[in-house]
Prior knowledge:
The chain is of the alpha/beta class. The strands form 4 sheets. A 6-stranded parallel beta sheet has the order 14-13-15-16-12-17, sandwiched between helices. A 5-stranded parallel beta sheet has the order 3-2-1-4-5. Strands 6-7-8-9 form a 4-stranded mixed beta sheet, with no helix packed on it. The protein has 15 helices and 17 strands. It folds into 3 domains: 2-119, 3-Layer(aba) Sandwich (Rossmann fold), CATH 3.40.50; 134-184; 190-401, 3-Layer(aba) Sandwich (Rossmann fold), CATH 3.40.50.
Amino acid sequence: xxxxxxxxIILNPQFxxxxxxxxxxxxxxxxxxxHLKNDERRGYLARSAIRKIESADNIEIIMDCNYHKxxxxxxxxxxxxxxxxxxxxxxxxxDDFLFxxxxxxxxxxxxxxxxxxxxxEFEKDEKENIYKGFKEVILTNExxxxxxxxxxNNWDLLTNEYLLIEDSQGNIIDKKKWTDDYNFxxxxxxxxDSMYTGKIKPRxxxxxxxxxxxxxxxxxxxxLYGCFGSGKDAIMSSHALSFIQKGxxxxxxxxxxxxxxxxxxxxxxxxxxxxxxxxPYAMPLADHVGGIEGLxxxxxxxxxxxxxxxxxxxxxxxxxIIYCSEAENLTKEHIQLLxxxxxxxxxxxxxxxxxxxxxVIFERNNGLKQAINSLKGNRLFGCVExxxxxxxxxxxxxxxxx
Length: 402
């Protein structure tokens, strides 16, 4: 298949030139990319597209065209010049040809000229559509020097979004965060050392970003999401207990929706007091405080409160950490309930793994996803996606079952 690509097609990082035997590109599109390379919002995409074109061996740049009488009326804009060049290539060789575009108006014009065309809809991967909290960019030495000399937001970073800068070999050489005062800040964090969990330090770059996020008290709603065994609860629980020990907050209110794991049998109504009923659901926290005995000790000291989601309505929670584990099993209404409980000095911490959603209701109405994509860019919200299993080498084998 031979394809003629509109500018927006080649600009999109999801487009793969190697999917086609040959790709045609108008010189007008090359000029548009050149014009965009210093654009604050799309400059990085344009520079990446230019490098992709330069290294491709199956692309031909169309430099000029003769206007056909049927399309002469279309010669007054860049889009129309591209369309006429497309018409010329198609006229010369009609076999196995396709015009790729994401502009409905251009598609209508192409059809009017009899050009085979396709509205190119990029694959909508659910994971890709969820805000990650960071972006990774590769900069040449020249681009890096220019960035340090004139640090501008060329990647359309949102407030509290991290930037991981890599060299051409993929090595991370710097880590920045875009702040609400329109500046870059170098990330900084402290190793956690508490009487409950001992010393805890980051094991990978995503955990470094999480440490920086959790330790920033100006951000009151924090989210860590991603794969199993990546350290979400370990990082949150160790920080929470360290903050309680230092007197930064009065207590941790641990909330988890009491949802049984998908395709398991429920244990039924549990007898006993509220803490006893909620204890099985608080084991992710117990694992990091010395087991059930350690958890009970902290509960008795009023440093940890186990709370049922259904009893959070009407609460006015001050100077506390509302800590919600397994938040992939929450609806939008659940998240709204938790956020609305935050009073003076309180913070909400959420973590989850979208691969572990346990009920169809949370697939249709997932509060954690909606919260991430609705709150991104707000100065009070921060988020980091985790993708590296750190629990053990054995735990990583679970990924092979996907």
